[in-house]
Design brief:
By secondary structure, the chain is mainly alpha-helical. The chain has one domain. It is built from 23 helices and no strands.
């Protein structure tokens, strides 16, 4: 299982070299790991006992059924969020913001793009934000090298912005869904906002003193065709406000009803879907279909959803067989400091992906109960909303920026802009590392 997992990860990291998308690799790794675990169980136990352990775990509180509930919760949440954002974009709602940017000064433009990415990421998510901001950059910056530099800062800003919001990064969502972070103020983890911003601010300040000149706008192609299906300003504004309100509604709905987060997301999607149907009911059939959620669903990045399914199942299999517990003991014995462990996880997330690392951490370390803390058997850092979980969200979110393959935002930008891995290491990685260390130090200084 370990060999399958490592080989799978190498193939995911080298997907552009081997020309195999990361989604099928993750699915194969996940399913083969569970198949290997099932062969082990059926060889070591009787049929009925092995079947029960496989589905429900040794204690009846784990197994494939338990993991699939948690994973499905995350995947439906992501699918709903991606559909809402894609619907806003299809109605050109984001242009109401992007059309306001007029400056060509590189430093001013960099600050605008970075700050927008930081806050967009908290409201939408870092992957979606990266896609939206790259689309914007193509309209604002014509020179490829300059645009790549801005794209690198988009990755840093989007990952930093996603770290302090429960809907901004898959890993923060995972910690929220599974109960490690249970008390966000609306969508924000208050103690993570300042450290996350510092992780962006330090690289921004460095570039402010080194970046000079004006950004050349791209030349408009002659004869370029405009979008056939346009929307009115009222429709753009309606979808922008309704979409963002729908995303902000999700944590409120969870707090009030105590239902899993995907239920609130699906409720928001249902409302937006119904509104768009009514909004376009009198339009021509082709126009109506193009702007409908049914059409949007065909454009949603389902390969990313399947990638998360495969990789989370692979991690779940390693957790079930006990490998993650061994890793936890190794990190604890070697580093002997929970904050050093989280910092190490952050750096590791830049080599692989932060999603499985956080999933592994959730399997390695248990949520503490007040009784266990009072008895002295576990540190209060592991209580719900404890400093271990908050620092894990920060490190896993911002550490992934150190390499371009370390986050969903980075992988998306790499694919869209065809940014070279080595170029990113030379131009962006050091900035990201300095920002990451600065953000982590800020959290330790102020909140530990």
């Amino acid at each position: 299982m370990i060999v399958v997992f490592i080989v799978g990860y190498l193939m995911i990291a080298l997907e552009h070299s081997i020309h195999i998308d990361k989604a099928p690799t993750a699915l194969i790794a996940g399913m083969v790991c569970w198949a290997a675990y099932s062969f082990y169980l059926y060889g070591a136990h009787g049929h009925d006992e092995a079947h029960h352990i496989l589905l429900h775990g040794v204690t009846g509180e784990g197994g494939l059924m338990h993991h699939m509930f948690d994973i499905a919760n995350i995947l439906f949440f992501l699918l709903g969020a991606m559909t809402i954002v894609e619907t806003i974009d299809e109605h050109q709602g984001f242009t109401l913001i992007t059309d306001k940017i007029k400056t060509t000064n590189k430093v001013k433009l960099l600050w605008i793009i970075a700050i927008l990415s930081f806050f967009f990421s908290a409201l939408l998510d870092n992957l979606t934000t990266a896609i939206v901001m790259i689309s914007l950059l193509r309209k604002l910056v014509g020179d490829k090298q300059t645009r790549w530099l801005f794209a690198g800062m988009v990755i840093i800003a989007a990952n930093a912005g996603g770290a302090w919001s429960v809907i901004g990064d898959v890993t923060t969502t995972m910690l929220w869904v599974k109960g490690q972070l249970t008390d966000p103020t609306v969508i924000a983890i208050p103690s993570l906002i300042i450290p996350s911003f510092i992780a962006l601010l330090v690289p921004l300040l460095i570039l402010t003193f080194t970046l000079k000149g004006e950004a050349k706008r791209p030349k408009e192609e002659k004869g370029a065709q405009k979008k056939t299906f346009t929307t009115t300003r009222g429709e753009k504004l309606t979808l922008l406000i309704l979409g963002i309100a729908g995303l902000l509604f999700v944590p409120i709905f969870k707090t009030v009803t105590h239902l899993p987060p995907f239920t609130g997301m699906m409720l928001s999607l249902g409302i937006i879907w119904a509104v768009t149907e009514l909004m376009h009911k009198k339009k021509e059939r082709d126009h109506k279909y193009h702007l409908s959620v049914i059409s949007v669903l065909q454009k949603v990045d389902t390969s990313s959803v399947l990638f998360f399914l495969g990789i989370l199942l692979a991690v779940a299999a390693l957790q079930e067989v006990g490998h993650l517990k061994i890793m936890a003991e190794f990190l604890t014995e070697t580093l002997q400091n929970n904050y050093a462990i989280n910092i190490a996880i952050g750096f590791l997330s830049s080599i692989v992906d932060n999603v499985p690392l956080v999933a592994a951490s959730q399997g390695m370390y248990s949520i503490a109960s007040p009784e266990a803390v009072a008895a002295g058997t576990i540190s209060p850092e592991f209580l719900p909303n404890g400093t271990f979980w908050e620092f894990l969200a920060l490190c896993a979110g911002t550490g992934g920026s150190c390499l371009i393959i370390g986050s969903a935002a980075g992988v998306a930008v790499m694919g869209l802009e065809k940014i070279d891995f080595i170029w990113y290491m030379k131009k962006i990685s050091l900035l990201a590392v300095v920002g990451y260390i600065s953000g982590a130090a800020t959290y330790i200084l102020f909140f530990v």
